[in-house]
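Supplementary Methods S3. Complex input for the zinc ion-bound model.
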Amino acid sequence: QCEMEVESFVSKTLDLLQEEREAEIEETRLWQENISLKDLQSKGVCLLKLQIGSQSTGLYGRSLIVLEPRRHMGVSILPSNNFGPGDIVGVYDLDGCKPSSQVCTGVVTRASQSAITVACEDPPDRLNLDTELYNLLKLANDVTYKRMKKALTTLNGYSSGPASDLISVLFGYSEPSCELSFLNTGLDSSQREAVSFALSQREVAVIHGPPGTGKTTTVVEIILQAVKQGLKVLCCAGSNVAVDNLVERLAKAKARVLRLGHPARLLESIQKHSLDAVLAHSDNASIIADIRRDMDKAFMGMKKQRDKGEKIHLKREVSELRKELRTREAAAITEVLKRADVVLATNTGANDTGPLKSLPADHFDWVVIDECAQALESSCWIPLLRARKCILAGDYKQLPPTIKSQTAASKGLSVSLMERLVQNRGDSVVRMLTVQYRMNRDIMTWASDHMYQGKLTAHGSVEKHLLSRDLPGVASVEETCTPLLLIDTAGCGLNETEATDEQSKGNPGEVDIVELHIKALTEAGVKSKDIAVIAPYNLQVDLLRQRLSTRHPDLEIKSVDGFQGREKEAVVLTLVRSNRKGEVGFLAEDRRINVAVTRARRHLAVVCDTKTVTTHAFLKTLVDHMTQHGDVRTAFEYLQVEPNMHVCSCGSGPSTHSRPGPSTATEDEQRRTLVQYQEIKDQVERFLQDQDQAELRFPSTLNSHDRLLVHQVAEELGLNHESQGEGKDRFIVVSRPPAEPHQAREDPQPLQPAAGLEEERNSPDPPGGLFSQSATQMAKQAKAKGYFNFSLLGKTKKTKAGASAVVKAERVCSFVKCKTSVVHLGQLCSFCNRQYCLGHHIPEVHGCGDLAKANARMRISKEGVLYAGSGLKDKSVDPNRKAYLHRKLDSRLKDMEKQRKTKPKEKETN
Ligand SMILES: Nc1ncnc2c1ncn2[C@@H]1O[C@H](COP(=O)(O)OP(=O)(O)OP(=O)(O)O)[C@@H](O)[C@H]1O
Ligand SMILES: [Zn+2]
Ligand SMILES: [Zn+2]
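Predicted complex, serialized as structure tokens:
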């Protein structure tokens, strides 16, 4: 429809022009016929009775005729007139200005007061220089008309050319724009801004591209825009991989690219763009091949030839040929290089002893350097010296170039050109890309907040993506439905190795956990090629490879540095450091952690000792972020399912938890644990009230934290509790103790008011059978079932003796004033590491409540749904009752708080 409108405009306008032209001709005709020549002369369009002053040959072989007033009249000035250069005029004999009397036509080239010069295409021979007189008449100018007509005809058929966009805008097919037109129309606004900024800067533009923000996409657009403007671009990067990536993308966009560098180092798909390949297909190729063949022939001849004279002759020939070859090749290289719009090489490949030496020094208009923050500034200067303008792209918040000399690094060698410019010039030369296309939002926000001033946003296509969503064949299990999973080894005794080599660290315990998590992911259907295991230390990388590579050959296990520039659907990161001193060494480089975390697209699991790593402020932000926005598990959960690490036959969890996680539990989180505890307890109590029910089964879906609570509650109420089944199918059965001869309730010791649990114990009407057993009986029972055969988890692997030592050391309950023996029946508190009688072993009772809560918090998964002990949300719980429970707990929390504050006083009265 575009063509239609131009077409109709043209045909209509041609008609109108024709009409106008005819009107003009008609007017001239009327003048010629009806107006006297004298009148025409007074109108200034006619000059009468002129004589020819001179005649000569001008440009393009035309005759130049100078017409002047008659000399003998004594006046040599022309009457005033409108003749001027460019006017089309007719020269007539004195018969008048009729067509029949026209001598010739021409164009005025000069008009002065005394003469008019006319250039004639075809001057007749009959012009009489001296005697004849002529009339000069302005003619309607059909040149203009003809030119307009031609332009209109061209406009009609215009298909491609410089005016295409203009035509389109002037005929209203497209909007006029003051901006450049982007070749990639899918760019986001930060990328567009970066492109126009790069184009408008005179000397330098820095494109800051955080992970996954489409840095290459942006750089490619910038280069294509430069090519569109006819500029020559030299494009470099630190690594061959990065250069090849650019070659691929530019070639796809039909740019004339040329890749310098040894063909053996290039990707196969890139080889056809290499200098050698292009040369082989150039016009010079066959001549060069001929010369080579001749040279070979001469060489062979030289070898065979005995005759000395012949030999010398051949030698001379070879050297002639070699010279010829050199000049031919140089010419061919220059030609190929000049033809390319974009020449690509590594920074060092852009040196001027290589092919680039055959180009003039000012050949390139722009230099583009990608990955600029990962290269030594000095290496950037190799290409930089070749152009008047540079575009630098990269992310200085990722790892800088590796430098072996500590001294050199600390004195500034590791500062990249990009970093230096950002520091010195700031925003005036930098544009940042802010939409990222890689990470789930929960993974991204940590990096954004702590590395990129909170400026990043996640593109809609990735914002919420998870392993379980969209990835084919991946089942929805806990591990695949969470973008962030923190597996905390704090207090589990998974210490780092004390290697003699101080530089590298390993942590076999964390390798165990990683293995189990990889197992969970792959069992859920995540392909091992979509998972990366990243460790900051090479020793740990080795340990991980030894353990995992045979079973998962596609699993990539690399150091952080080795994974820069890459991405994976799932990343499992082990931070290795776990020591009492809280040393984090290598991990203290924020950019290393940033790189490690930002490789992950849908899932990031971090295995670490939060106790150790949170001594470092930046690492603490990561732990805090994951605690707040992700799932948190304690490594115990993993170690329990390991058969050879099984510590307790009842599966109730670790007996030792000497160091709880970061004790920053919020009120809210404390309440959540208590609610959970309360719900399990309610469930058990409901069971107790229902005499028809013989036993209460908790499903195997219960997580280990809830299982621990079940055991605790059952123990507290003097019930039997037993784990049955194997592995994943393990579940707990709670039942009443066998009906024994009734005995008086034996309430061990007054409970501490701060415990917050005694209320429940002393609740008005304890159901029948409750607390009816003597401690000794329970002990016998328990012992028979091996309930309390606890040992220290962390130490089981190393020194079993150590564990019993603790047990032996204490003969009576550690609770103040309690004298109950714990020799046969006692329980170790996981937090204070002391033995207590059954009445005092619950952390809340003897004063470890806060630690227990903090620990529990670590185990609660992110949803924070209130489980009714089943592992699934119990919708049957009456909302009114729930609200009541909440109010009850709230007031209890307040009481606890009050009591905590007045604790010292109470101790005195105790
Ligand atoms: N404007 C966009 N719209 C949609 N997807 C985009 C856009 N820009 C980039 N992407 C996608 O983001 C991913 C990364 O882009 P690109 O390859 O340009 O970046 P890179 O330079 O390789 O990586 P990084 O941004 O981490 O430096 C690619 O999958 C690309 O398709
Ligand atoms: Zn304790
Ligand atoms: Zn006691």
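Residues 641-667, 740-808, 860-877, 903-910 have pLDDT under 50 and may be disordered. The two ends are 97 Å apart (CA to CA).
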